[in-house]
Amino acid sequence: MTQPTSTERLVARLLGPAAPEVSCETCFAELDRYVELELAGADADAALPGLAAHLQGCPACHEEHESLLALLREQGLE
Ligand SMILES: [Zn+2]
Question: 4 C-alpha vs ligand 1 centroid, how far in Å?
Fold first, then answer.
C-alpha cells in the first residue's frame, strides 16, 4: 500500500472530502455526457463528480437536465 505524497495530501485538503464544486459553465459543458451515461445505466455520478449535486442545487441546470433527459428518451424510443 502506497502512502500519499505531500502534494497529494495538499490537493486532497484543498479539494476537501466532499465532491468538487461544479460551476454552471462546467455543468452545461458536461450535461450531454452526464445524461448519456444516465440513460446507458452507467454511474454518471461517479464519472462526473459534483454534477448531480449541482443539478439538485441549481434550478436552471436542473431544468436543462430534465429537458435534455426527456429529449434523449424520446429519441431513444424511435
Ligand atoms: Zn447551474
Answer: 33
